[in-house]
Design goal:
139 residues; mainly beta; 6-stranded antiparallel β-barrel
């Protein structure tokens, strides 16, 4: 699902999205994964295309997504020289005494809902996707 309302609070599909972490981050893409327990698989990904600003921990819990404030959008706009297409903000539990405020500005945001295995399985089907760090037992 491609997100069209860039500065509204994002709406996640129904599910248990308590556990979150960064599963991939390169120059062109930031991928956040979520599930109820990330030990074996995750079922949701927020895929930010061409991220400009990323301020969030590598792992966090129970985020509360909200619309960015005008000040947050203006600050990012001043930093970039133009208003980004997507600004996502949320508060999350990162293990400290208080929630951490997070902000991600990017060119695009796609929400992908599918099961992604976090470990190698010989019996996985040909259409099964694995997390980027998973290698087959033969490699």
């Amino acid at each position: 699902m491609h997100v069209e309302r860039p500065h509204a609070a994002i709406q996640l599909p129904e599910g248990s999205w308590w556990d979150w972490d960064v599963v991939a981050w390169d120059g062109g893409q930031l991928r956040l994964a979520a599930g109820h327990d990330l030990s074996y698989y995750h079922s949701l990904e927020l895929v930010f295309g061409d991220p400009f600003v990323v301020s969030c921990p590598s792992a966090f819990h129970d985020p509360v997504f909200r619309a960015p404030t005008l000040d947050e959008v203006l600050k990012v706009t001043r930093q970039l020289g133009e208003e980004p297409a997507v600004v996502v903000t949320f508060e999350a539990d990162a293990g400290g005494q208080e929630p951490v405020s997070c902000l991600i500005a990017a060119e695009r945001l796609d929400i992908v809902q599918e099961t992604v295995l976090r470990y190698w399985r010989e019996d996985a089907g040909p259409d099964q996707r694995f997390a980027p760090w998973v290698r087959s037992s033969g490699q």
